[in-house]
Input
Amino acid sequence: MNSGSLRIKTPLGPVTLLSEEGALIRVFFDGTPEPSERVSGGDDKDSLLASAAGQIGEYLDGRRREFRLPVRLSGTPFQRDVWEVLRTIPYGKTLSYQEITRLLGKDDRHLRAVGSAISKNPLMILVPCHRVIGSDGSLTGYAGGLDRKKALLELERRHMPR
Output
């Protein structure tokens, strides 16, 4: 099995990237819940990891709005459905948990399940769970911390075309 890991420094703190068989499988900030995958030294010269690190750097500098990287989302079918909806939220925009639930064709009884799936997002930043807010516009839940969520949303607002 071809896998690797790379830890990069960012203005929001260290981020670890994990790849396996030519796809990114995890992107997470230090201090987030421990991934089930083991983080080893890996091959930090891996071209996928280097490309991912470069694209994340460009995003955090305000020079990139979309990621063009192979990813593999591993989770339940419902979790993958939720994460695919997250991937459709445009740069600089937000959706509420309720709006995501509606996009999935579900009613409010599924809000907790949607929130749970979002909290298990394996690809922070790339699958933009930071773009999900409360129905009242409040910043709620982010595995990377609300300070990082606020910083990511402000970054996107600053770099939106006028």
